[in-house]
Amino acid sequence: MLHAHLTTLHVVSQILEIFAEQPELTEQLLASSAIAASDLACADTRITRTQELQVCANALHLRSDLGLELGRRMHVSAYGMVGYAALSSATFGDAWRLMLQYPALLGTYFKLDLCIEGELAWVCASDYQHSPELEMFNLEMCLASLKLISDDLLGQPLQLSAAQFCYSEPHYSDRYPHSFACPLQFNAARNAFAFPAHLLQQPLPLADAVTHREMLSRCRKQNTEFTTRQAWLGRIRQLLAEQVTAPPGLEQLSQQMHCSPRTLRRHLQAQGTHYQELLDELRFERAKTLLSEEDWPICRIAEHLGFSETASFRHAFQRWSGVPPSRFRA
């Protein structure tokens, strides 16, 4: 599927930091992501979820517990405005309600919920809809980071009561207690961790009403701008997906969006992307799906994706993935 949300380079930067003692791996880590090392020096750079996930997949081949390690590095300050709004909230519960109100600003790959069950509060992550092979990695990073954020908010470690995971126990499960120092259950019905519900009433050490009102105002504005941009970008992706066999050119696409080509180009540039990148992303995702189906020969896939020649498709797929389509299928 297409990943409509844009995100920062924070996760990518953290991955490169983890492998900082092996600079020769930088090229391998960034392979097929269309992210240049020089991009990392610009704080305003935005990338697509597809680009971020590509770097994560590259790194996961080198370190299987990468999700846990990243989660232990993603402090509340890594989440920008919404993180500082949470820090200045009056209570731990107020901070959680704020973060759950703005999932787009958290940049999570999951639907997050806070459920009270008896004397326990459960933080649950569900509804993952991205690369299936990265679900476990993303879940580990998400829950480990949320635990670390809780520590930051309280100014002391959050005492967990339990942690549950839908998948089988991994071979590196001895590293889980670094983030989840509590009874662990694998092959469970949900992905979640629990803590005493009374802690939601705990006042936060950095609470400040004036700062909180200012941060909350900025969060609302940022969320409105973000969701508006994403809805606009989502419409472009939808149009391209509906016409993938005969993709519209930039001018035709701008007519369908009821704007001029110049306006369309400017809006895409403001979101850190461009027409060809969006089309390539769509074609790449669709190609990977079709290559998993044996009854689709490569020549037919090329035709379906709007390539006039099979050789052009092979060349493009090699550029996107680093391997030819026949090898990817094998």
TrEMBL record:
Superkingdom of the source species: Bacteria
Keyword Transcription regulation: yes
Residue intervals of the HTH araC/xylS-type domain: 234-330
Alphabetical list of InterPro entries matching this protein: AraC-type_N, Homeodomain-like_sf, HTH_AraC
Signal peptide: none
One Pfam family from the record: Arabinose_bd
Listed SMART domains: HTH_ARAC
UniProt KW keywords: DNA-binding, Transcription, Transcription regulation
Tagged with keyword DNA-binding: yes
PANTHER family xrefs: HTH-TYPE TRANSCRIPTIONAL REGULATOR GADX, HTH-TYPE TRANSCRIPTIONAL REGULATOR VQSM
Identification of the protein by name: AraC family transcriptional regulator
Organism: Pseudomonas spirodelae
